[in-house]
């Protein structure tokens, strides 16, 4: 089967959507299918010549209009032979390319999130109407999406998955050192890092590693200094995706203190669980609550509750045995429900089902 993914970005860009597309593409290729990925090339992100078994085409961007890349070559590059076209939302440029093909090639849409710009809603809904199937990774995605209203009969729930073998090789935390919490993600307001720093102030025996960059970086560093926790925080900035397991190896547990449903899934939670690390998440009403099982694979705290977050940090900081038990439970949960192989196989079954319809 020939599968064409219309994505916004691809490796070496490292984000939630990029990692899902990579997992789907490489997973289907491992099952013997011909997979092509079309993505946008932006300044500052080099191409990759031979890392993957998939064929990758990139359309150069002339710039960005808000969150939308201006890449005219994307439309032309989308005219490839395929048995299935898989569009990843939100991505208006891919929607336009898909509509201009105006052929009989079956279309599958993965709704990672709704578009934030109403100007793109018309073309997005036209593609949703055309799609043979719409995939969401959790029931929460369907409940939170306004764009999927009216298309519920087409929706299939297929959880995101990761290459768990990459994280199974992460060694246990080094013995004898201070307990370390880890945050991986963009430094943006909805991630709740300011709350994590305030909670860290209340747990003096804990250290924190922060991996990521973003517009909140300068403000967060100033806050860490004002709270007198700067000497307990290590800032790693933007980190190569291939080296993230190294950062996970230093950590005793992961914290995802997000405060809004912009945190729709949290793949980093799966990665920590696959590495045998417990997780602390917040009660954000998204798929995060379908991944972490409070009391089993980690802890959950109410939104924006600094004292509760501090208590959770202290609990895992002071109880190595509980950390180990939760880490082992998390690894079992990933292997049972959230692997790349399972995600790819269920998508291939979906492709075969819709292409068999007359």
CATH architecture of the largest domain: 3-Layer(aba) Sandwich
pLDDT average, as an integer?
Answer: 91
Summarize the biggest pleated sheet.
7 strands, parallel
Strand content: 15-25%
Termini gap:
17 Å
Summarize the structure.
Helices cover 37% and strands 19% of the residues. The chain is α/β, with parallel strands linked by helices and 358 residues long.
Topology record:
Blueprint: E1 2-6, H1 16-30, E2 34-41, E3 55-60, E4 64-65, E5 68-69, H2 73-77, E6 84-89, H3 92-101, E7 107-111, H4 121-130, E8 133-136, H5 139-144, E9 155-157, H6 164-168, E10 180-184, H7 193-201, E11 207-211, H8 217-226, E12 233-237, H9 244-249, E13 253-256, H10 267-274, E14 279-282, H11 288-291, E15 298-301, H12 306-317, H13 320-337, H14 340-355
Parallel strand pairs: 1-2, 1-6, 2-3, 6-7, 7-8, 8-9, 10-11, 10-13, 11-12, 13-14, 14-15
Antiparallel strand pairs: 4-5
Helix pairs in contact: 1-14, 3-4, 7-12, 10-13
Write up this protein.
There is one protein chain. Helix 1 crosses helix 14 (340-355), helix 3 (92-101) packs across helix 4 and helix 7 crosses helix 12 (306-317). Helix 11 (288-291) links the parallel strand 14 (279-282) and strand 15. It is built from 14 helices and 15 strands. The chain is of the alpha/beta class and 358 residues long. The chain folds into two domains: 2-161 and 339-355, Rossmann fold (3-Layer(aba) Sandwich), CATH 3.40.50.2000; 164-337, Rossmann fold (3-Layer(aba) Sandwich). 37% of the residues lie in helices and 19% in strands.
